# Entry
Amino acid sequence: MIQDSQNKNALLIGNGVNLLDEDQSVSWKALLNDLKVTFNIDVELDNAFKPFPLAFDEMLHQKRGSNYFDDKVKRLKKYIRESIEKQLEDKKGFNKFHHELATLGYDDILTTNYDYALQKSLDFSFFEAVFK
# Structure
């Protein structure tokens, strides 16, 4: 396995590339703020040192309604899916920077993102065929 990785170049991409053109992608801050307002959850979203996953975890534990954690998760996930679909209406879901980074010629690209923006920027028709 070590020999397989010799002389290979890898690129690590974080969420910053999504923030370069918010008109073509989903704003996680907007999504969490929408959840906060819709479900009347008291969680701080303006703390630059609090990652969004931690804020979401706080929301899960503070959400009113069913006492069953699984029910809360299901309801929030359903709402998130609907909110993301609404945010992506008339958007590509990626920006020119995704495409530029994805075509730099690296052997491997690693990302911390939980989205398909890089894949979409390379071949959107393939993405549509696989995930429909």
